[in-house]
């Protein structure tokens, strides 16, 4: 679809990086250059790990080159091996499932629980079979998944529970910071996440032995005494990443404030638009609001999510259909449904058809948010055939 004149002359992106204080970033990078210490537990990486552990109230933070590799290390450090099955929601970034598949683990996809869009604990329990060796929950869009019920299921079956917390850095569950739940949680600091280290990830845990195994696996299986003691990969974070990570942490509260402001502006301006519902964060919890996600109910709005997506793109609003398609709907999983998704996943399949992520972050101002909401309201009004008052 094209329009004569797009509403925005410059494209508005989902996941534009937040930059923070450039001078501070440059100072930190220059410090690393002066020290001639660029990777392998440099001072910036260690400071970043300390601050992430402190912010998440955890005993250990093991940074990684990205969250995908962090998930692989966490799985291996939890004793999950090639050929094992791990239950994971299908409604997530495909990286969650690919991380497991790449180390020979079979992701078995569960359906979602509607409120949080995270794993449905009852369905997880139903899928547990003789080859199940773990559960990975995902805090989708930063909303904590049903942590307590999943913890119960995992404990009842003696399974390690890990969380992909890529969206939930800085968020809380029942007032406690995300990070300390399950055996370990994994954050992403990819450039598109609201706190970023260009590329990067972190495994956080309160388990001393698990942390030691993860730290060793991250560095060729070599322990603190430089003895090779286990299988391993190379997944270290380097000093430039940590420099950016620290600079992001310095500005984290400002980033959240901007995201909250944008979220409130979307909420206000979409409140009267029928069939377009903003997904909310649980009341009383801290939330980073890094994703603004609407659900489009075509029966009420008259437009399908894909039509709205096309209207927005034609106007330079580069909205994203997160997460469409779901993991079980893409290769290599789709062709082997008998292995990965033994049951239909009706709630996942319904939600992937309705969700649309809208631009937010420090590169997006309230005037632009209002403009985006106008485009959406106009599209719905046209579809419903109303005449503007
Ligand atoms: C971004 C993301 C990842 C992958 O993070 P990387 O740091 O890019 O490897 C994994 N899971 C979810 C839910 C994500 O959004």
How many helices?
14
Order of helices and strands: EHHEHEHEHEHEEEEEHHHEEHHEHHEH
| Beta-strand percent range | 5-15%
- In round numbers, the mean pLDDT is 96
- Number of DSSP E strands: 14
The outline comes out as globular
Q: Remind me, CATH topology of the largest domain?
A: Aspartate Aminotransferase, domain 2
Q: For this structure, what is the CATH class of the largest domain? A: Alpha Beta
Explain the overall architecture.
Strand 5 (132-138), helix 6 and strand 6 (161-164) form a beta-alpha-beta unit. The model has no long low-confidence stretch (mean pLDDT 96). Helix content is 39%, strand content 14%. It has a 7-stranded mixed sheet with strand order 2-10-9-6-5-3-4, with helices on both faces. A 3-stranded antiparallel sheet has the order 11-12-14. A two-stranded parallel sheet has the order 1-13. By secondary structure, it is an alpha/beta fold. It contains 14 helices and 14 strands. It is globular, with a radius of gyration of 21 Å. It folds into 2 domains: 22-250, Type I PLP-dependent aspartate aminotransferase-like (Major domain) (Aspartate Aminotransferase, domain 2); 252-319 and 359-387, Aspartate Aminotransferase, domain 1, CATH 3.90.1150. It binds pyridoxal-5'-phosphate. Pyridoxal-5'-phosphate (PLP) binds at residues 66-68, 92-93, 95-96, 138, 164, 166-167, 188, 190, 201.
């Amino acid at each position: 679809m094209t329009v004569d004149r797009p509403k925005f002359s410059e494209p508005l992106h989902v996941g534009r990086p937040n930059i923070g204080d450039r001078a501070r970033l440059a100072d930190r990078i220059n410090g690393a250059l002066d020290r001639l210490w660029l990777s392998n537990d440099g001072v910036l990486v260690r400071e970043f790990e300390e601050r992430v552990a402190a912010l998440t109230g955890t005993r250990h933070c093991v940074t990684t080159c990205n969250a995908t590799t962090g998930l692989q290390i966490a799985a291996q450090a939890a004793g999950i091996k090639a050929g094992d099955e791990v239950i994971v929601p299908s409604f997530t970034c495909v990286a969650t499932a690919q991380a497991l598949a790449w180390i020979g683990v079979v992701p078995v996809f569960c359906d979602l629980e509607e409120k949080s869009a995270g794993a449905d604990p009852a369905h997880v329990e139903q899928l547990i079979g003789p080859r199940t060796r773990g559960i990975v929950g995902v805090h989708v869009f930063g909303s904590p998944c049903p942590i307590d019920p999943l913890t119960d299921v995992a404990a009842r079956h003696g399974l390690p529970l890990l969380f992909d917390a890529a969206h939930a850095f800085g968020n809380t569950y029942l007032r406690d910071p995300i990070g300390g739940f399950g055996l370990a949680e994994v954050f992403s600091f990819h450039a598109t996440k609201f706190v970023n280290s260009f590329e990067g990830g972190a495994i956080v845990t309160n388990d001393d032995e698990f942390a030691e195994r993860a730290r060793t696996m991250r560095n060729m299986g070599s322990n603190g005494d430089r003895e090779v003691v286990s299988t391993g990969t190379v997944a270290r974070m380097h000093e430039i990443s940590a420099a950016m990570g620290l600079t992001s942490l310095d500005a984290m509260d400002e980033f959240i404030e901007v995201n909250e402001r944008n979220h409130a502006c979307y909420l206000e301006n979409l409140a009267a638009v029928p069939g377009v519902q903003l997904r909310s964060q649980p009341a009383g919890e801290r939330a980073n609001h890094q994703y603004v996600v609407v659900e489009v109910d075509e029966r009420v709005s008259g437009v399908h999510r894909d039509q709205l997506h096309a209207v927005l793109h034609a106007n330079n609003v580069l909205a994203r259909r997160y997460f469409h398609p779901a993991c079980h709907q893409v290769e290599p999983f789709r062709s082997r449904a008998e292995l990965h998704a033994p049951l239909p996943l009706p709630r996942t399949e319904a939600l992937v058809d309705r969700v649309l992520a809208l631009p937010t972050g420090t590169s997006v101002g309230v005037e632009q948010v209002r403009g985006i909401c106008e485009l959406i309201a106009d599209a719905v009004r046209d579809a419903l055939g109303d005449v503007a008052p």
